[in-house]
Amino acid sequence: MLHKTEGIVLGTTSYSDAYSIAHLFTRDFGRVSYLLPMSRGKKPKIRTSLFFPLSVLHMEVEHMPLREVQKLKDAERQFPLYELCTNMTKVSLAFFISEFLSFILRESGHNELAFDYLKNSVETLEAAEKGLANFHLALMMGLTRFLGIYPNTEFAGEHSFFDLQNGEFVVNEPRHSYYLNRRESSYLRDLYRIHYGNMHLFRLSRNNRNVIVDQLLDYYRLHVCNFPPLKSLEVLREMV
Questions:
Q1: Which residues contact 69 (CB under 8 A, 6 or more apart)?
Q2: What is the pLDDT of residues 136-152, one digit of tens each?
Q3: Which CATH superfamily is domain 2-77 in?
Q4: Once rounded to an integer, what is the mean pLDDT over residues 40-51?
């Protein structure tokens, strides 16, 4: 059966001389892999150049139950990504975010709210002129709301610990090892109010920013899925 939907490109992988596999987070079906014909001839029906990380597409797709790789009938970009393809800071952010989402969303089903949040995030990143160094922090914190893992900040006091396992600030040091010390907890406590509108106001050193990214990745690993070290992270550390 044919369907029209929207999708955010997470990446592509090689499959054969004639096809690659495109991985997208769609508004109607969640995370899906599609068979993507390699561009051949002067006017291919589906251009592989559309599948740059974080591109937002209108798509016509064929979905069959139990099929691991679905068929893509047509695709067109919803809006151009000039900055995400040319501004090197935004390019590094796009590759980090797409790799991060590829693991976070790999078991994800239908989640329109998460899709709309991520689509707005792509549009915001394309247009942003300030606060870029903190964009990925704002996205990672904001996404926790749509995945049901937003931290409980009720006891986010000056001397509290952040319990990574239970997703909450606590007064006493937890008995397990999955928590942040008081200094590390203070970074996260200062950050839980961050969003795209105020991200430029957070004055963080590169070292502090890197510590926070590592904390957030640890938090996601405990609550969403176990994923390997991100290859794009080291490049991002040098760019922002």
A1: 21, 33, 34, 35
A2: 999 999 999 999 999 88
A3: Nucleic acid-binding proteins (2.40.50.140)
A4: 76
